[in-house]
């Protein structure tokens, strides 16, 4: 009788395990659990029959077999439920998945304009050298654009900048004193008035001049200004900065030189050129030691502070770099041109 009941238990367990692995839905598992582990289940029935076994040892052996079988069935039910649950979840995730990628034809994907590219690269190089980016307004006062830069009213150098005036009279101000900034140099004044030295800034931005567009001039273009104010700054710092910048921006085969020149806001003043590896020189911009009058206009004592400044055209840089013949092409809005850079 004992071997009989034990093999009946083993057989019932095996059938239960087969049924469980055949379950394909969570509902199947719930139904199986009711059937297999409930009071009316086959194993429960066999357990009831244990009472009729006479030998204590036999009873113990059979009882152990039934308990093991019931535990195995429970474990199998739990495992199958977990499996089906994970499967159902994966199916749901797949079914509810939303494709957030949009197909963009490579030819229709845009990119930054070549002047913006140059602007951003210039910022990267100067920021890498320890400069900070400063800004100023495009509509300026005559005072910031000229007077504070050592060009009082009537100064002949004002004629160098063909100025566009804005028809706006500031409260308490004079007519004809609001201009579209002709250069980024007024940002020097604004920064000196706003901040305590030491100052190490660059100011890229849009500037305006009353010019007829031609191959090398545009009435709206871009400049980048640099200003350093600290104690004991000399012309050597200017030359070193320009040289480090030249190699970082154009490449190690490039060099720079300063050439004596004149600007009202610097003394001494210099133009700076860069030399291509093939020996050819290109004029790039203006620079010099900040004039004491400019320091004073910026609220600084020239006995304590000294500095250098420089400025050059961003559009020209892009033009030189890509060998563009005519500046006007950069702004003609012709996608076939823009796409090439
Ligand atoms: N502002 C000058 C221009 O528009 C360029 C320039 C020259 C800027 C010398 C400077 C400088 O800061 O020191 O032509």
Q: Can you tell me about this structure?
A:
This protein has 341 residues and is of the alpha+beta class. The protein has two domains: 2-97; 114-338, BirA Bifunctional Protein, domain 2 (2-Layer Sandwich), CATH 3.30.930.10. Helix content is 43%, strand content 19%. It contains eleven helices and nine strands. The strands form two sheets. It has a seven-stranded mixed β-sheet with strand order 1-4-5-9-8-7-6, with helices on both faces. Strand 7 (266-275) and strand 8 form a beta hairpin. Helix 1 packs parallel to helix 4. It is rod-shaped and about 125 Å long. The termini are far apart. The mean pLDDT is 93. Residues 183, 185, 225, 263, 266, 286-288, 309-311 line the site of 3,4-dihydroxyphenylalanine (DAH).
Secondary-structure element string: HHHHHEEHEHEEHEEEHEHH
Given helix and strand content, the structural type is alpha+beta
**Second CATH tier, the architecture of the largest domain:** 2-Layer Sandwich
Q: Overall 3D geometry? A: rod-shaped
Low-pLDDT sequence parts: none
CATH superfamily descriptor of the largest domain: Bira Bifunctional Protein, Domain 2
CATH topology of the largest domain: BirA Bifunctional Protein, domain 2
Please state the CA-atom Rg, rounded to the nearest Å: 42 Å
């Amino acid at each position: 009788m004992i071997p009989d009941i034990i093999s009946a238990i083993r057989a019932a367990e095996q059938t239960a395990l087969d049924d469980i692995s055949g379950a394909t839905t969570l509902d199947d598992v719930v139904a199986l659990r009711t059937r297999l582990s409930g009071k009316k289940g086959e194993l429960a029935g066999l357990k009831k029959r244990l009472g009729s076994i006479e030998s204590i040892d036999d009873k113990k052996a059979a009882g152990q077999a039934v308990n093991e079988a019931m535990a195995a069935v429970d474990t199998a039910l739990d495992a199958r439920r977990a499996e089906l649950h994970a499967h159902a979840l994966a199916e749901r995730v797949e079914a509810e998945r939303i494709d957030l990628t949009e197909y963009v034809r490579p030819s229709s994907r845009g990119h930054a304009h070549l002047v913006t590219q140059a602007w951003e690269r210039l910022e990267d190089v100067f920021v890498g050298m320890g400069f900070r980016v400063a800004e100023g307004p495009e509509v300026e006062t005559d005072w910031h654009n000229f007077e504070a830069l050592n060009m009082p009213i009537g100064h002949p150098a004002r004629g160098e900048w063909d100025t566009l005036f804005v028809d706006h009279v500031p409260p308490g101000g004079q007519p004809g004193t609001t201009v579209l900034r002709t250069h980024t140099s007024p940002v020097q004044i604004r920064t000196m008035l706003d901040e305590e030295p030491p100052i190490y800034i660059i100011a890229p931005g849009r500037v305006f001049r009353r010019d007829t567009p031609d191959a090398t001039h545009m009435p709206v273009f871009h400049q980048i200004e640099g200003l350093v104010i600290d104690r004991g700054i000399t012309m050597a710092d200017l030359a070193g900065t320009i040289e480090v910048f030249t190699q970082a921006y154009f490449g190690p085969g490039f060099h720079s030189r300063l050439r004596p020149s004149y600007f009202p806001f610097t003394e001494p003043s210099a133009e700076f050129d860069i030399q291509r590896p093939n020996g050819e020189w290109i004029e790039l911009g203006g620079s010099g030691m900040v004039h004491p009058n400019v320091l004073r206009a910026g609220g600084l004592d020239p006995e304590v502070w000294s500095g250098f400044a420089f400025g050059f055209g961003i559009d020209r840089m892009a033009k030189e770099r890509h060998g563009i013949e005519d500046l006007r092409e950069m702004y003609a809005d012709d996608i076939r041109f823009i796409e090439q850079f």
